[in-house]
């Protein structure tokens, strides 16, 4: 019981938690990205035109973030760099697509945004490719 209430943690527990966070957010977002990636032609006509880039380019950038940057997160390779496009994409989801309704339709996107911000601030942990090469 005493250990459950303790605020102390070991380095191993921290690294395991960061691995779990990376795997969870990476796999879940990658599955979203994969569905849109294989049905790209269907989505490109009805996707929003963000900042005048055109719907095709906007969708391509979002899919790059959702699929490929999520793959980098899963591996723990260039984790902080890979988190940046994911943070941008989820910010667009929360604030543009869901009108900042973080307690309504945008709740899932806001949760993803929170996780990606944590990964950006803290990094991948030692159980990652970045951790193994000493970055």
Summarize the structure.
This protein has one domain.
End-to-end Cα distance: 37 Å
Low-confidence stretches: none
State the major sheet: none
Alpha plus pi helix count: 6
The total tally of domains equals 1
Q: Can you count the beta strands? A: 0
The residue fraction in helices comes out at: 55-70%
Radius of gyration: 17 Å
Describe this structure in words.
This protein is an all-alpha fold and 135 residues long. The chain has one domain. The chain has helices spanning 11-38, 40-44, 55-75, 79-97, 107-122, 129-133. It is globular. The mean pLDDT is 87.
Notable traits:
mainly alpha, 135 residues, 0% strand, 6 helices
Q: What is the secondary structure topology, with strand pairs?
A:
Blueprint: H1 11-38, H2 40-44, H3 55-75, H4 79-97, H5 107-122, H6 129-133
